[in-house]
TrEMBL record:
Gene3D superfamilies: N-terminal domain of ligase-like (3.40.50.12780). It is an enzyme of class 6 (ligase). Keywords: Fatty acid metabolism, Ligase, Lipid metabolism, Membrane, Transmembrane, Transmembrane helix. It holds the Pfam family AMP-binding. The chain crosses the membrane at residues 20-40. InterPro entries: AMP-dep_synth/lig_dom, ANL_N_sf. This is long-chain-fatty-acid--CoA ligase. Residues 118-237 form the AMP-dependent synthetase/ligase domain. It comes from the Eukaryota.
Length: 262
């Protein structure tokens, strides 16, 4: 490989000239036809002004100088209406993406600690329409399992697509949500469930097995456990008065007409 000093200066100058001419000839058409000038002007414009006249602010967007915008669209004034509006406007857009765990490896760090390295597959997407339909059926299924509006329901689950679907279902059917961190210990879990007087909890198979199962007898009001994992699992050793459902089974129950649910 030749260094810059080894190249003929005349050849280098000709090469630079050709590159410069090519750049000019291609840049000008791109600049005018791509709208780059308009985008640059839009980026440089003043987007907000101080409503007090002082540089310290507070600032408001130019299109909201008189008052703050309260609604994105007329009538869209709650979280469930916002998601319904998004599902109607963008039904086939990607909404929730999940990556399959292909394998797990232990990775040794320089300090001697071992971290769990997860190998993930490609994203599998649910559209806005699919998520909206799933949330609506799930909320209806919860109502069929005696979850009442204005009565708390707990979500004790890792961050995943099913968490979001469950939350949207609660918004739709006016079930106040109690969220518990997946890292809480047994006493904290029992305290949170008892303080909020929940009768239904949404969780994962792993958390039910590793955290929740040990304290079920300490939560006397609990009646229903909904496991979000796809594969149905039999839980025959639950305390009396507690029924375990799979999330898909609850959605299927909610999709049926009321007179066909029994």
């Amino acid at each position: 490989m030749k260094l810059k000093e080894d190249i003929n200066p005349l050849f280098l100058q000709v090469f630079r000239s050709v590159v410069w001419v090519y750049s000019v000839l291609t840049f000008l058409p791109w600049y005018f036809f791509s709208g780059a000038g308009t985008n640059l002007e839009r980026a440089r414009r003043i987007k907000a002004r101080s409503i007090s006249g002082h540089p310290a602010g507070p600032y408001r967007a130019n299109n909201s100088q008189e008052k703050l915008v309260a609604l994105v669209q007329p009538g869209v004034d709650t979280l469930d209406k916002m998601f319904e509006y998004a599902a109607m406007r963008f039904p086939y857009r990607d909404c929730l993406g999940t990556r399959e765990v292909l394998s797990e490896e232990d990775e040794l760090q320089p300090n001697g600690k071992v971290f769990k390295k997860v190998i993930l597959g490609n994203y599998n997407w649910l559209s806005y329409e699919e998520v909206y339909h799933a949330a609506k059926c799930f909320g209806s299924g919860l109502a069929a399992l005696n979850q009442k509006p204005h009565h708390n329901i707990a979500i004790f689950c890792e961050t995943r697509a099913e968490w979001v679907i469950a939350a949207q279902a609660c918004f739709m059917y006016n079930f106040p949500m109690v969220t518990l961190y997946a890292t809480l210990g047994p006493k904290a879990i029992a305290h949170g469930l008892n303080e909020t007087e929940v009768t239904h909890i949404i969780t994962s198979k792993d958390l039910l097995q590793s955290r929740l199962k040990a304290i079920l007898r300490d939560v006397p009001r609990l009646q229903y456990i909904i496991v979000v994992d796809v594969k149905p699992t039999s839980w025959s050793d639950m305390p009396g008065g507690i029924t375990v459902y799979n999330m898909d089974a609850v959605k299927e129950l909610g999709s049926k007409p009321v007179h066909d649910r029994n």
